[in-house]
Write the structure tokens for this entry.
Amino acid sequence: MHKAVCPGSFDPVTNGHLDIVSRASKLYDEVTVAVMVNKSKKGLFTLEERMEMVRETTADYGNVVVESFHGLLVDFCRDRGIPVIVKGLRAVSDFDYELQMAQMNQGLAGVETLFLSTNPLYSFLSSSLVKEVATYGGDVSGLVPKTVLSRLTERLERDSQ
Ligand code: PNS
């Protein structure tokens, strides 16, 4: 069975993430979305909420499982026999850091990285920007799935009170 992992914070999952996960799910028999336990920065959503949103929005793909991880991604890959990381590259600005990580992961454990070019529709998209735009009342309905939009609206309303 050919396996791959799509890692990230997913705070929250966006249409850009889903574009990559859905395309990965067509290339591999099983894709694990690895949601990072983020100890250093406090996210808008808890780990459980982030995982739930990814589960809800990837359920239809049929071969995607959602798990959490902390520590090194290559340790997670080794424990599960996953040889490939799939990442989206949005722009040249992503490239330097992504290349460093890919080389480090290859050097540490022989885990390869496959870069998919992001759909141009989402080349400007990031979870941080979605949160910022939504915080100031901007329309992000085309950038995140419906279920994420309603959770986002609810959370930002709660936090502003
Ligand atoms: O969605 P993000 O926050 O951009 O995802 C970053 C992520 C989780 C892919 C990256 O920070 C990562 O792989 N972290 C795990 C820790 C690790 O393995 N660090 C060494 C990378 S070479």
